[in-house]
């Protein structure tokens, strides 16, 4: 056995968007693993949405936060990259400096994929960051009442039960969205693929609805792990159990692809959640362990809860500790 093979680092692909993805990546960064983050490009809200409307680039907000989570730059430089102009600045009001830099690099490199690779070098990123597609995508949703909406922010604001989502090319609805080869190769070469945590329909599924990504997930030999949400989301996943979340993923991928589910069993204290501040949160996700086993899932249930700011979130360190345990169970593959 060669020295190179003895020191091969396990390859982990983490897929998602929103605020959940950086939580996992920040805690993975300190481990001896080869990290690839695949980031959704279907966000159309806030500063990202405004930049997208005027500059016609992939919305940069999720990418900016992922870059920071994996960057090895000093805190002051990361603080500058994340700085958001206040409302008195009029023209620049609400924009984060990092979003503007990503938009500029996208024009210079003729696409978001090359821009993010260049930015990763500048920001001393420990790992790989791959936008799910090289062009902006539009998220589409059909609701349980038969109505259809376009746009991540519109879908979220509707607070209606989502039946099905799909993505289209924002610039050409007749063009089939596709991930670049590096994304597909990362999925196929991975030892572990992590989905979430994050909004089921607007952060996780947009990546999976790209056809060649879905095909890769159906055929990869990697263990596919879903980090189930702690709270349901108003309208979108109200009354969902953990098994319902997995069922939606499997149904969209037309195959039972989820191998392992991480489920939080720690109770969120009554009256703790500030529902006015965290208005997307609804109730704590209920458990249906039989429903999970019926979908051939291994279930790992533990305390993954972090209570802060009157909200319920995943404790990134506890989640990553479990991911490392799962890699250790197949330790002979990495020696």
UniProtKB/TrEMBL annotation:
The keyword Lipid biosynthesis does not apply. It is found in: Cytoplasm. One of its GO terms (biological process) is regulation of cell shape. Keywords: Cytoplasm. NCBIfam families: CofD_related (TIGR01826). Required for morphogenesis under gluconeogenic growth conditions. This is Putative gluconeogenesis factor.
């Amino acid at each position: 056995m060669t020295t190179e093979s003895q020191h091969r680092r396990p390859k982990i692909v983490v897929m998602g968007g929103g605020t959940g993805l950086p939580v996992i990546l920040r805690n993975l960064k300190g481990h001896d693993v080869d990290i690839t983050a695949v980031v959704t490009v279907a966000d159309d809200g806030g500063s990202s949405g405004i930049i997208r409307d005027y500059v016609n680039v992939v919305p940069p907000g999720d990418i900016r936060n992922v870059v920071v989570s994996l960057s090895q730059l000093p805190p002051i430089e990361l603080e500058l990259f994340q700085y958001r102009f206040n409302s008195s600045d009029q023209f620049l009001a609400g924009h984060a400096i990092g979003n503007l830099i990503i938009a500029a690099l996208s024009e210079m490199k003729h696409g978001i994929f090359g821009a993010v690779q260049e930015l990763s070098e500048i920001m001393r990123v420990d790992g790989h960051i791959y936008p799910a597609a090289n062009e902006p995508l539009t998220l589409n949703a059909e609701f349980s009442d038969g109505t259809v909406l376009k746009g991540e922010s519109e879908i979220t604001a509707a607070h209606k039960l989502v039946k099905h989502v799909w993505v289209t090319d924002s610039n050409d609805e007749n063009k089939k969205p596709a991930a670049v080869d590096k994304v597909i190769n990362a999925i196929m070469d991975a030892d572990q693929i992590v989905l979430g945590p994050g909004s089921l329909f607007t952060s996780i599924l947009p990546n999976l609805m790209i056809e060649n990504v879905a095909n890769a997930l159906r055929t990869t030999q990697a263990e596919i792990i879903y980090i189930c949400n702690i709270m349901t989301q108003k309208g979108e996943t109200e009354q969902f159990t953990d098994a319902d979340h997995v069922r939606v993923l499997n149904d969209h991928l037309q195959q039972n692809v989820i191998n392992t589910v991480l489920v939080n069993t720690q109770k969120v204290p009554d009256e703790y959640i500030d529902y006015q501040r965290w208005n997307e949160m609804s109730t704590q996700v209920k458990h249906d362990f039989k429903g999970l086993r019926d979908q051939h899932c291994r279930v790992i249930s533990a305390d993954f809860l972090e209570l802060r700011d009157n909200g319920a979130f995943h404790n990134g360190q506890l989640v990553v500790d479990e991911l490392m345990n799962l890699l250790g169970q197949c330790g002979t593959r990495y020696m």
